[in-house]
Amino acid sequence: MPNNQIASIRKYRKKWQDKVVTWFNQPARKERRRAARAAKALAVAPRPVAGLLRPVVHGQTVKYNMKKRAGRGFTLEELKEAGIPAKLAPTIGIAVDHRRRNRSLESLQENANRLKAYKANLVVFPRRAGKPKAGDASAEELATVQQLKGKLLPAAKAAAALEKVAVTAEMKKESAYGKLRLERMNARMVGVRAKRAAEAAAAEKDADDAAVLADLAQLKLDEGDAEGAQELFRKALEARQQQDEQQAGSGGGAAAAEEADSWEAWDEDAVPLPPPPPQPKKAASGGGDSWEAAAAAAPQPSARSRPAPAAAAAAPSAAGEGGEAAETLAFGGGHVLELFDLTPAVRTQHLEAFLERLCSGHAAPPTVKWVDDCHAAVVCSDPRAAQQLLGAATAAGPAAEFRLRGYADAGSGTRKLPPSELLPPKPRPKTSAAVARRLIGGALNMRLRDKDAEQQLAATRRQQRQEREERQKALDAAWDD
């Protein structure tokens, strides 16, 4: 309790003699401490009462590194910077620490300036009053000197200066979070980018080596050395194959391999297409050749031929069994166009954007059906829309981004597409937000009604119901007859 007052709470008075340490001799202890300080000052006079001069050091670890405190002693480098010999320093009240090392230039300069300030204000008493030595204080200085009883050169705590900066528009545009994410991504992708750069450099070197080998082989062939030229050509081919394998492993050779195996990879005029396989005859019900024999007798497709679609392959058998006519192409193919001379880099969104610019006013936009990497079929709603689209593309001339042609001039891949994939697109039916509005209003317990839309929806449903009833009546009347 402060000032030795009585404990006002009962729980503090319970066994307080055992748990509370009293201090009734505070005035006496205060007087004794004062006497001890005076005795110490008299014993060390005329030296400072605070003791030896100590350096200013930073606390250990990151937590306390920003705080300053008094150290054990000055280093030899700090004494040398201040011009004080290491053996003289302890005799004039300076603490020396031979084990400490100061690796901070800023702290070294600060302690050196501290030593210089101490040396400038230092008063050295002569050992013999009648025989002063060089550097000792004169009699006039000794007469006016006073003992320092406070702190010895206390470290000034400099307040951190705040620099005010005007916020500019460029500062507002920049995002610190975005910069941090970018730097983290760059740090994470260092190894990946270095690996890619090394692979690209190695591939370029292999390509250069292969080109050099091919040139040397051509020179040997011109000189008449066929064997040497053949050996060099073989090495160049191996180098290029190794380069292609590396690109395929990294994902770069996938497009090239797909293009090489595509339907339009060769010239149709130079290499004619194989004739279609003959249709197998219908087997007799009483026996005959089995389906295994028919499959073995059927010609096998070549490695470069494109397999027929499932719908087209199943059409003859279905027609033969059910007796129905084969499916015919709508409008005779007049509503179908073909985009040709495409590159593997072209994507579906590129073609859709190109077609949208040419036929922005059509009710039903055309659809794109890919045939292979170099050809795509454009299915319009009717032949008139197809002719308008073809005319707009032809009017653009060589400046057109892609080239179009009619179904009659299309390639064999487009003409082999089944009619089910070339159906004309239909316009999107009109929609109404009445149902969604009613559901949202019911969930929010509010009346969100659009009477016009609800009436229109009800009329549409009523008309559909009447049409169903009329069809059902007509069907019932037909069966009654």
UniProtKB/TrEMBL annotation:
An annotated GO BP: translation
Domain of life: Eukaryota
Biased composition, class Acidic residues, residue ranges: 258-270
Region of interest (Disordered), residue spans: 238-319, 410-433, 455-481
Signal peptide range in chain numbering: none
Positions annotated as TPR repeat: 210-243
Entry GO CC: cytosolic large ribosomal subunit
One Pfam family of this chain: Ribosomal_L13e
Compositionally biased spans, kind Basic and acidic residues: 464-474
One Gene Ontology term of the molecular function aspect: structural constituent of ribosome
Biased composition (Low complexity): 290-319
Keywords: Ribonucleoprotein, Ribosomal protein, TPR repeat
Transmembrane spans: none
HAMAP family: Ribosomal_eL13
Family the UniProt entry places it in: Belongs to the eukaryotic ribosomal protein eL13 family.
Name the UniProt record assigns to this protein: 60S ribosomal protein L13
